[in-house]
Amino acid sequence: MLPALPFLALVSAAQAIPFPFKFLGWNTQIPFQPSVFSVYPPKDESGWVDPRVLGGQFIDVSPLLRTGLPLTPNPAQFTTPRYGEPLNVIISNLSDPFVLTDEGFRWYYKSIGFSEECLGLHYGHVHKADLGDGDGRKSEHILARQHYFPRWGTCWETLIGGNHFRAWKQNGTDASTGAWFLGASKEQDSTRHHMIVPNGYNIGRDLLVQSAISGSSWKGMSWVTDVEWRDGLLEPGFKGINHAIAQDGRIAILTVHRV
Fold first, then answer.
1. Phi, psi for residue 239 in degrees, rounded to 5
2. Cα 250 from chain centroid?
3. Which of 50, 125, 168, 206 has the fewest beta carbons under 10 Å from its own?
4. Is the pTM of this model over 0.90?
5. Which residues form the signal peptide (predicted)?
6. Sign of dihedral through CA atoms 200, 203, 206, 212?
7. Distance between CA 243 and CA 241 in Å, rounded?
8. At what angle do helices 153-160 and 7-16 cross, to 10 degrees?
9. Which residues, in sequence order, are bridge partners of residue 226?
10. Cα angle at 124 between 22 and 10, to 5 degrees?
């Protein structure tokens, strides 16, 4: 059982502990470098469908809320009424079929250092995204947080901050690819209300990718992951992005292979 320390003292003590992921680069600050590419029109993709083909987008907020039409703010549905967070990682359906299942995806993200929320309780807003698959705006399928320790692992992330991601599956009637779309970011501790750290969208994405391409295993199953970096799908900068935190517009396309 955790000792009954004052909350701020517990945060300070926790931040002083040399967590394993610090040695793996989880706290690395990656300088923001704007993309030099423009946003390109949608085209046929292999392993996933560009959400923009059928009216979706790579930001987890409804396009309607960015058109200047009357708004009905609902913080339980969107990051804010007008701004969202980038979907900056895609796991292609060319991946190991097991990873495309709910159970397999959980095994995979546990293998790269994430797990379910602390005590199974959800903290914060439920985000929605339109993947252009015919389902319209749908709630996040999974919210996973950095797992520090075998016990109380993601509770530490809830307390002191760290990496996390939300995930949606592209499985609607118009584009049932089974690909996973992730919005990864690094956030501050609970005393700062889990605000995204400066450059946190790029950092969160890059740290997740770094862990994935390093190879991973869980419960005797092992994977290697290839990454393709794509520009031109998401406009770089902070237009439409929550907290006005600029991101570089790059999206990582991951293909996960079982070994």
1. -65, 120
2. 13
3. 125
4. no
5. 1-16
6. negative
7. 7
8. 110
9. 255
10. 45
